[in-house]
Amino acid sequence: MHYLSGLIGIAFVVLALFSWQTPWIGGLFLTCGVLSFLAIRPSRVRWWLYTCCIASALAAITLFARFFLQVESLSDTIDATGFDYALLTDFGAGFAMLYVVSEYSCWLKGRQDRVKLKIEFQRWRERIRLLEIPRS
After folding, report:
1. Residues 90 and 65: beta-carbon distance below 8 Å
2. pLDDT tens digits, residue range 75-90?
3. How many CB atoms lie within 10 A of CB 116?
4. Looking at residue 80, what is its pLDDT?
5. Which residues contact 94 (CB under 8 A, 6 or more apart)?
6. Which of 53, 77, 90, 127 is deepest in the core (most CB within 10 A)?
7. Which pLDDT belongs to residue 31?
8. Are 90 and 70 in contact (CB under 8 A)?
């Protein structure tokens, strides 16, 4: 997750540098990159990582939806249905990303609990070994 956030952040910063002619698009790209880099930050607060990942994903999805909507409106082929489909795609992708991140969070939490249980089990085994009487 940390590597993925880093790669996404680098990609957004590069895209922000390429879009210097349109500062608002560059600003949105840069915002997405900053949120992705903030998600890398090692923190004991896990919700901060997931919040940054979700915010970055939603910002990216919104940005691309708006960008393609703008491209379509410039070519004079857009109507109200296209706008509705863009918004529906935006919200659908946002909810899909929320689902993926929450599933990853649950998997990571379950894995951490299993590791903690394994460590406790090993400690109890060591204690029992110390109490055992050597056989002769």
Report:
1. yes
2. 665 555 555 565 555 5
3. 10
4. 55
5. 57, 58, 61, 62
6. 53
7. 75
8. no
Which residues lie closer than 8 Å to 43 by C-beta, 6 or more apart? 49
Look up tokens 């991140």; give the residue. Answer: 101
Q: How would you write 3-42 as a 3-class SS string? A: HHHHHHHHHHHHHHHHCCCCHHHHHHHHHHHHHHHHHHCC
130 pLDDT band, cuts 50/70/90, is low
What's the predicted TM-score (pTM) here?
0.42
Please tell me the distance from the alpha carbon of residue 56 to that of residue 134, in angstroms, as a whole number.
60
CA distance 79 to 92: 20
Angstrom distance (rounded) from CA 58 to CA 111: 27
CA dihedral 102, 103, 109, 114 (to 10 degrees): 170
Closest C-alpha to 30, from 8, 49, 51:
8
